[in-house]
């Protein structure tokens, strides 16, 4: 009876929604509230809307969008944790900003159960509720992403190519980023946001063509693909400005000669929300390296820096060379990279490292032996671009 009285108006509203991007017509409010208890899912085969517990929804969707066995194959959960935050943010976004393409507003779905429209939801799938993805969801419980305080439209794709594809007209926008770890891969999706296979590659690292792509945790992966985002709901504060990612380094070996100066080519991304300054301003940036003994705690007393040569906008990256001196004694060492810039504190300019503000360092472990234990030729001398 209610549907009969409202059918004409509802049909017109439904048509307007169908012809546009998702609209906040029925309670769409993207300002962040508490994590939803439920989500409305349109079941394509059943032709109905199911009201699903939000945590159950995540436990079904994540293993159908990411590959749960990656954790077993790669020995790291970071890709699945990346997916857990992306899937949660995407679903949460549409609870606040539902798609609403049915003709009956009380049963308006937030999302569909198909990947080409939303995220795959199939509770009868044998992959649903996989223990690896369930653990990733638990490890990231309550964590989500925003852009200027607005819930992020956390889009992702199977293979997004290098570079990824921008979606500047959306609000919040999705930017394009260089993704060299997937250079040469064929794009097979819309190309926006997180690359699912790229998240796997960054989680496990990769060595190719005399270049090392280091291993990242899920915060670095998310900040890489979703530029200028804010991390919300994390157990410790994640900085917005003090962020950086090491994209590549030319030290592509696990063994180095003792007491040697190496010219190391690095490629660094600004994964923060503000531009990096160069030496034309007082607040210029430097990449710092420090050698530690194998415990990763005790410093050797050997350190150095290289200045970021040009301003770097959020999401962009820059290549330059760092002169790295290796330890003089044989042993296993940790080479720790950190970004720093100058801050005005207590009426003076002081160096402020990003790790002191909560962003992780980039660590590499090397077996250092006297020359000529191994002849090491820096990649910069091997026509590394």
Descriptive terms for the model:
alpha+beta; 2 domains; three-stranded mixed beta sheet; 21% helix; 28% strand; globular
Give a quick precis of the structure.
With 385 residues, this protein is an alpha+beta fold. The protein has helices at 2-18, 54-65, 70-74, 78-96, 131-139, 196-204, 218-225; strands at 38-43, 48-53, 111-112, 144-147, 150-151, 156-157, 194-195, 206-208, 211-213, 230-232, 245-249, 255-257, 261-269, 285-293, 299-307, 317-325, 331-345, 348-353, 362-369. Strands 12, 14, 15, 17, 18 and 19 form a six-stranded mixed beta sheet that branches. A three-stranded mixed beta sheet has the order 2-1-3.
Task: Please characterize this protein's 3D structure.
There is one protein chain. With 385 residues, the chain is an alpha+beta fold. It folds into 2 domains: 2-232, no CATH class; 245-381, Sandwich (Immunoglobulin-like), CATH 2.60.40. It contains 7 helices and 19 strands. The strands form 6 sheets. Strands 12, 14, 15, 17, 18 and 19 form a 6-stranded mixed sheet that branches. The protein has a 3-stranded mixed sheet with strand order 2-1-3. Strands 5-4-10 form a 3-stranded antiparallel sheet. The longest helix is centred in the first third of the chain and has 19 residues, at 78-96. Residues 1-28 and 373-385 have low confidence and may be disordered.
């Amino acid at each position: 009876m209610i549907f009969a009285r409202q059918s004409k108006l509802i049909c017109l509203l439904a048509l307007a929604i169908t012809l546009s991007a998702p609209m906040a017509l029925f309670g769409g409010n993207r300002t962040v509230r508490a994590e939803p208890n439920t989500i409305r899912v349109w079941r394509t085969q059943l032709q109905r809307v199911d009201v699903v517990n939000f945590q159950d929804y995540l436990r079904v969707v994540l293993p159908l969008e990411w590959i749960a066995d990656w954790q077993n194959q790669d020995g790291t959960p970071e890709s699945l944790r990346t997916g857990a935050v992306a899937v949660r943010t995407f679903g949460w976004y549409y609870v606040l900003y539902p798609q609403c393409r049915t003709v009956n507003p009380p049963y308006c779905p937030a999302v569909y159960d198909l990947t080409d429209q939303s995220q795959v939801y199939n509770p009868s799938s044998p992959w649903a509720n996989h223990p690896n993805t369930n653990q990733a969801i638990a490890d990231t419980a309550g964590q989500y992403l925003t852009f200027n305080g607005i819930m992020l439209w956390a889009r992702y794709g199977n293979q997004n190519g290098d570079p990824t594809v921008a979606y500047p007209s959306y609000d919040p926008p999705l930017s394009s980023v260089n993704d060299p770890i997937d250079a040469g891969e064929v794009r097979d999706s819309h190309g926006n946001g997180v690359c699912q296979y790229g998240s796997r590659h960054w989680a496990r690292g990769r060595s190719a063509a005399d270049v090392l792509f280091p291993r990242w945790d899920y915060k670095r992966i998310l900040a890489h693909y979703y530029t200028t985002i804010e991390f919300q709901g994390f157990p410790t504060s994640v900085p917005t400005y003090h962020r950086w990612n090491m994209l590549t380094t030319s030290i592509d070996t696990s063994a180095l000669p003792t007491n040697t100066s190496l010219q190391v080519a690095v490629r660094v991304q600004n994964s923060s929300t503000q531009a990096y300054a160069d030496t034309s301003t007082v607040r210029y940036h430097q990449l710092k390296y420090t050698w530690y003994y194998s415990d990763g705690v005790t410093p050797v007393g050997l350190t150095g820096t290289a200045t970021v040569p040009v301003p770097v906008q959020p999401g962009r990256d820059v290549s330059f060379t760092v002169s790295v001196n290796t330890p003089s004694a044989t042993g296993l060492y940790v080479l720790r990279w950190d970004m720093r810039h100058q801050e005005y504190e207590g009426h003076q300019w002081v160096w402020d490292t990003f790790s002191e503000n909560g962003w992780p360092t980039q660590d590499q472990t090397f077996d250092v032996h006297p020359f000529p234990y191994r002849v090491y030729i820096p990649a910069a001398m091997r026509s590394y671009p």
